[in-house]
Amino acid sequence: RRLARVAQMMHRALERPPRIARLTDRILRWLIPGVVALALGTFGVWWAVAGFSKALYVALSVVLITCPCALGIAIPLSLTVALEQAGRKGLLVRSGRTLLDLARAEVVAFDKTGTLSTLTAPSVRVVRPEPVPAGSISAPTDDTVLRRAAAVEQGTNHALAAAVVAAAEARGLSLPRVADVSTHAGAGVVGRIQTDGQMRRLGVGNERLLEGLGVPRPPHLHERFVDEAESGRTPLYVVDEAVVVGLLSIEERVAPHAEAVVGAVQERSEAVSVLTGDRPAAARRLEDRLGVSAEAGLAPDEKVDRVAALREEHGPVVMVGDGINDAAALAEADVGIALSSG
Ligand code: ADP
Ligand code: MG
User: Fold this and answer.
1) Which of 339, 228, 207, 322 is nearest to 275 (CA)?
2) Neighbours of ion ligand 2 (CB under 5 A)
3) Whole-angstrom Cα distance, residue 164 to residue 117?
4) What pLDDT digit, counting tens, does each position of 98-124 carry?
5) pTM (predicted TM-score)
6) Cβ atoms < 10 Å from Cβ of 126
7) Per-residue model confidence as pLDDT tens digits over 12-22
8) Residue 113 alpha carbon to ligand 1 centre in Å
């Protein structure tokens, strides 16, 4: 249902014609009548002052010089050159209009996970609950927790998912088969895995996922969850059937060029902001590192609302994301920039 809503939001955002298109249309509607009126006026004045042939000459000059031909050649030409230059640097630009919109943008909003932060060198730590959760005969080992989590994450394309799968592969774990994977944007992922001839429902995600599944959070693990988050790592609960069987803790690093990029963008725009679905502690750390304001706990549709609000406040908005959970926000923005991993 959520996916359908995101798709609907994207369609709505894409259907709205860009403002620059409306502006060009408005100008073109008045350009020709304007030029004709100007030429006629000039003709009238010069006829009175210097006679018919001089007036005709001057009026024709007006038409010639204001003729949109020069403009008609110069604009596409410069856009083509700009698009080619961008292409050489690995930037694919959807249309020349995008560049015009980009020049007018006042606000730049960034996604966090997968955009400003990378999880490419994952160190995944497994924390298990003690005492052993009721309902499981023997406590699953670290490897079992990681293996099952990775099996479910395999079916998704989030940066966190890639980190979990990579960690399982690094330990040489074989992954069980998975079915019925559903991602819960901003919360996590749920799927059914086959182990010991049984299908088990497995979930990996944050508190929001636990709430969604109606699974109580064990106090002991919740404490660890908060600790891990506070120390700058990204913790994920692993839920087996209706029991939390462990925590994964993923090291998140600020992406190598994030500081330089955010600094450069800050110099050129009125406001820079980070919109993240992650916890406030992660947002605060990013604020300290990059010196930008970050808003935490935003679900994908809330990111869309924030983009709209930023536009109200400052003007045209650029959104930079990885296209995973933020596709709708990218579409809502006046210019959406998706990183190639997205
Ligand atoms: P961001 O806005 O920072 O890119 P997301 O909105 O993509 O973050 O995700 C927000 C949170 O949702 C993550 O920090 C994580 O707790 C949870 N989450 C999202 N996708 C997954 C996934 N595939 N597996 C586990 N957790 C996930
Ligand atoms: Mg993201």
Assistant:
1) 322
2) 111, 113-114, 322
3) 16
4) 888 888 898 999 998 888 887 754 556
5) 0.67
6) 19
7) 655 555 555 56
8) 7
